[in-house]
Structure formats: structure tokens, C-alpha cells
Amino acid sequence: MARWRSWLVIGWLGLVGGGARAGGVADAERLLAAGRVAEAERLLAGRLAGADGSPLGAEPLDVAAAELWVDVLVNTGRAEAARAACAARTERDPDEADAWYLLGRAETDPAKAEAAYREALARDGGHARAWMGLGSVLQARGDAAAADAYRRAIAGDPGLEEAWRGLVIALDDAGRREAAVRAAREGVAANPDAAPLWLAWAALDKPGRIGILEQATARLPGEAVLWVELARNRFEASDWPGALAAYDRALALDGDDADLRLERAVTAEVAGGALRPEDAATLLSLRSARDLSSRRAELDGLVARNPASARARMVRGNVLAAAAGVLPAGDPGRAELLDRAEADLRGAVDLNPADPDGLGALGSFLVARRRAAEAVPLLDRAVELRPDDVSLAVLAALALGEAGQPAEAEARLLAAAKRFPDSVGPPVALARLRLGTGRRDEAVDGLLAALVARPDPELAVALASAARQAGREADAAAALRDAAKRTGDARLAKVAEALAP
Asked: Is residue 18 very low, low, confident or very high in pLDDT (cuts 50, 70, 90)?
């Protein structure tokens, strides 16, 4: 996505904060933050539909809801649908500035977006959101006028957190750091519940960073992203207890974040003396390394320097297992790599037997090696230690099935589906289990029911695969077309088309 659109990615993922919001918009933002994109879109579409069901046909138009709806469509690859709905609104009422603003927001072509924003401003010279949108286009092409556009947006509506963020970035890009810091501080004063503005202020004001983040977490204790940044900055300041406390607050809010759990574990090892502080960055950098095999020598050195680090052994074990996985079954080096991987993963569990990640890594390795019976007690212990982790619950259930206990595995997956209704993991795993025991129709029926409750592309792909095995392509295609019609999600329609004879 081009830079001039980048702020949208933050907006609809629920990171905006933004203070008080209308009920429907706030509910949609919560759904988006939970990853329930299709539900959020349906909620917004219902709020915005006209009496005849037309998109964006509501009178009067809720601009904040329409703005978020457009963002959702653009960020899920359906900008054309958003653009068409906005264009239709401008045709119905060419004098409505809001409609032109929304059209600019829906456009992926910067020139067309700028033209639409200027049409909005021609109808309402004080349209704050249109000035904000124009600022984003100008900023992307390096036009110094962007800062002025953002200022005019803020003058019209000081509550436009996106405009404040744009102004901060524009000033910093122009080399005006002090002015950017002032703008961030003023933006926070005007929007004290906007987490991204607190983050921007902290990022720009290095000497006061920790104090700013402490103020932010006191104001917004429910924003995990603020606790994460506070934890990272305390870590850099060698305040291990403070960092651990902040990580714990973040994980209490977002316990499903594997990267966050890793950072917390690494911090704990540093605090306990198992990992040298100067090696922590190396270990964390391995999360995003594309070719981990090329860093095996680096990993060997890290493990040698930190023999008491369970995380270092676990990471190396995973890397060795992945390296073995790309070798043909008969390659003599494959068995050696697998043996070394298992030794490392077992070593990690020995060093920290209460770490659900280590238990899960070893259990997953054993399941992949067709040694599910050995994996079951490890994975059960991991689930016991982290009962709210749906991935561990699903893996433990599948291991039971592989170990010859399909009835117990199915019962666990059904329970997981009830406990984690927002996750597609349990219904997909349940279908896999049923297919493996020859119950193809039950697998398809379960996925059809799950798709009605949560139209999700991952469920759609699983349904298509199960339907082909059961010879029920027509049933699946009809359900997918219906889901695509209800949600407007073109991805579901594409899966349906692929099932057509």
C-alpha cells in the first residue's frame, strides 16, 4: 500500500483510540480489534444502508461509520466496491461534501483521491476531514503544503486524531523535530484517549519517553500497545522488573500475541541471569529472519554463550527441525538434524518445564514425527498452564486424535469451539479430524454451520477442500455464494467459483 494510504492500516485495526465514539462505530472498532472483520463490516453496512438496501444510502449519513466502512473495504482488497458506493452517493447528491470526501478516501489512485478531496472542499471550504485527506496525499508526494492542510483540518475539528498524526509525521519528515514534538503533545492534550498520539509523542521525545508512556498507561490502562512500548523502553533502560511488570499488563490484555510472549520470556531470562542482555536483541531478531538456516552458526554461538537459556535452545530446535523438513526423507543429514532438534527442544523443556511455549514446541515436533502418544502429556500440560490459548487447545486435541483417541479429541474440539467462538481453529481442526476418520459429510456439515456464524476465508478454503472429498461441491458453493452476498466479501465468492464444475 502506498504511503499516502498507510494511516488507514492503523485506523481500522482498532489502534486509533480516538476518545468517545458513536455506539455503532465503537462496536465495530472493537470487532476489528478482535480480528472479526466480517462482523464489523456487516454492522457498519447495516448502519449505513439506505431504505432500499443501497450501500451508503442512509439519511442522514453517519460519516464516522462510513469512513470506517470504506477503510475496511480498502484494506481487505475491495477498494473498487467502496469507490462505487461512494461515487453513487456523489451522483445522487453532487452537492454533498461528505460524499466527495468519502470518495477520496476510497480512491487508491492519489491523483483521483486529491481531485475528490478538492471537490469536497469546493462545496465546504471548512470540511475538516477533506483537509485531512488532502494532507495525506500531499504528504505522500513530499509537498510541504501537507502540514498546512493538516492544520486546517485540526482547526476545523481538533478531535481528528488522524490529522494530528499526519501533522506530526509531516513536521518530523521536514526535519522540524521540536515542532513535531509540540504537535504531538498538543494532539494528546486535544485527544487524551488516542493511543497512537501518545506513542508518537514518546517516539519523538527520547529523554522523556518512559515518563510519557507511564502517563499514557495511567490514562489508558486498557491499551496493550502502550504497555508493550513501556516494557520495551524499560528493558532498554535495564529496568528488568519494570519491564516484566509492563509485559504482564500487556499480556493480560492480549495473551494471544506470540511475539509478545517471547519478548516477556526473553526479559525474564535476562532478569534471571540465564541470558546475557547483549544477546537478547539477537534472539528477538530471529522472529523476523526470513532465512533462519543461514543464521545457524549465529544460533550455535548464542546457545554456547547462554547455556541456561531455554529460549535459545527452543529457537535453535525449531530452526533445525525446519531445516530438516526441506531435505528428502532419504537424506543422511535429515536424521541428524532431527535428532539435534529434538535434543534442543527437550533441553528447553528441562530448563523451563513450566513454559507452555517450550512444551508446545516439543509436542508439535513429536506430532509431526508421528509420535503423538509422547506429545499428548506435554501438550496437556501446556494447555493446563495456558488455558486461554486456542492454538494449544487445538494442537492438544489433534494429538489425541493422532494417538488413537478420536472421540476424546472431538469432544475437546467441540468444547474449544464453544469457548473460542471467534476462532476458526476449532471448526477447521474438527473437520480435519472427521475427514481423517471417514466422516466426510459430518466434516462438511460442521464447516457449513461455522461459515454461517463466521464467514471467514480460512473456513471457506477448509470447506472447499472437505466438500471435494465428500462430493458436495454444489452445497459448499451455494453456501459460499450466500456468505459472499451477505458480507460483500469477494474472497468467498472466488472460493465458490473455484468449486464450480
From this structure: very low
- Tens of pLDDT along 212-243? 999 999 999 999 999 999 999 999 999 999 99
SS3 letters across 323-341: HHHCCCCCCHHHHHHHHHH
| Cell numbers describing residue 296 | 545457524
d(CA 101, CA 98): 5
If we measure between CA atoms, which residue out of 447, 466, 443 comes closest to residue 456? 447
Q: Which residues contact 19 (CB under 8 A, 6 or more apart)?
A: 159, 161, 191, 192, 193, 194
Measured distance CA(166)–CA(178) in Å, rounded: 15
Of 152, 106, 110, nearest to 129 (Cα)? 152
Amino acid sitting at position 308: A
Residue 382 near residue 356, CB atoms below 8 Å: yes
- Which tens digits make up the pLDDT trace of 46-101? 899 988 888 888 899 899 999 999 999 998 888 899 999 999 999 999 999 999 99
The predicted model scores a pTM of 0.81
Helix (H, G, I), strand (E, B) or coil at 500: coil
Q: Which domains does the chain have, with CATH numbers?
A: 427-501 (1.25.40.10)
Closest CA to 480 of 463, 465, 469, 471: 463
Q: Which residue has the cell 476462532?
A: 423
* Torsions phi, psi for 149 (to 5 deg): -60, -45
CA distance 273 to 404: 42
Query: What one-character DSSP code corresponds to residue 441?
Result: H
Smallest CA-to-CA distance from 121 within 105, 134, 139, 138 is with 134
**231-236-240 Cα angle (round to 5):** 60
Report yes or no: 105 and 67 within 8 Å, Cβ to Cβ: yes
Q: Grid coordinates in use for 201?
A: 509523542
Q: How far apart are CA 344 and CA 312, in angstroms?
A: 9
Q: Assess contact for 410 and 446: CB atoms under 8 A.
A: no
Query: Cα–Cα distance between 460 and 478 in angstroms, integer?
Result: 12
| Cα gap 353→385, rounded to integer Å | 11
Instruction: Identify the H or E element spanning 436.
Output: helix 425-436
Q: Distance between terminal CA atoms of the chain? A: 35
Contact of 50 with 58, CB cutoff 8 Å: yes
What crossing angle do the helices spanning 310-325 and 277-285 adopt, rounded to 10°? 30
Q: What span, in angstroms and rounded, lies between the C-alpha atoms of 161 and 139?
A: 16
Task: Give residue 17's region: left, alpha or beta (phi > 0; psi -120 to 50).
Answer: left
Longest dimension (CA), the chain: 74
Residue 66 parent element (H or E): helix 63-75
Residue 369: Cβ-neighbour burial (10 angstroms; 0-12, 13-18, 19+): middle
Instruction: Round to whole Å and give the CA distance between 493 and 491.
Output: 5
